[in-house]
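User: Fold this; tokens only.

Assistant: Input:
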Amino acid sequence: MTLNYKPKSQLFKTVSWDAFQTVFRWWLAMSDDEATQAELSIRPAPTVFRAQLKHASRLDDVYLTQGFSALWQALPAEIHSYKKDWVMPCFAVIAKSLSTVRSHHECGTFARDLGHVEEGADKPVVSELRFQNLQAAKNEQEFVTQLSRLLAQLNNKTNILSLADDIACWFEEHNYQAPRRADKRIAVRWAMDYYKDVANKA
């Protein structure tokens, strides 16, 4: 399986590329894409996976779901042996967020989708205020709550690879691994992508 997305997070780029593919296959198992499931020999996941994750409002609740357990156990050994306290919470946010996404597209990025300006409109799909709330999230619970709200505004459609990678980048930066170069920081990259449509239509 070839993924047409190059991760920027150290977690997926350096620690385990296999984990990136595992996340994608896990999401596909919960999707309605029966053709791709058959092509990649992916067994459809029980509907309870998505249902439990959908109703888990707190990260502590996410840990107790069958869907998260299935993802965590499928991850490669490099992830389980990666001695960082934020790794499990990171995958919990990935599980919760991706479980709400119904349709994946390979073009663009999650932030570009947030800033998309529909034909005939003059404002992005997601308002600047809501976008700034995402950028200002200070802890894991705030972060996953903001993600859930924004994904709903996108009608639960986005590039899930970009989304998963962005979540990993956020966790890396909020655990004292922020890049020195401004253009490498997640909030700045989000802003560059978010305002692209507005700039192109100015």
